[in-house]
Amino acid sequence: MKLPLRIRFEDQDYSYTILNNTLDRTTREFRILLADQEYTLLRNEKNEWSCPDLTINDNPALLIAIARSIGLRYQL
Questions:
Q1: pTM to 2 decimals?
Q2: Of 6, 36, 38, 64, which sees the most CB atoms within 10 A?
Q3: What is the rounded distance in angstroms from the CA atom of residue 19 to the CA atom of residue 40?
């Protein structure tokens, strides 16, 4: 994948990269690179996205919006 993608969130543009080689309907976890930091996004049984490696300075709403965007784009 390794192509930069963009998302507009709260009137700001963000660029991120998907680090996984493939995504398909069975994908429950993938990694992204956002602002030179790697994040792992996980989908639970209820199809809700979360990020276990969040820090206090990270924006969880932005990461969930990115996960939803990727989910819609790749029909996860």
A1: 0.83
A2: 64
A3: 10
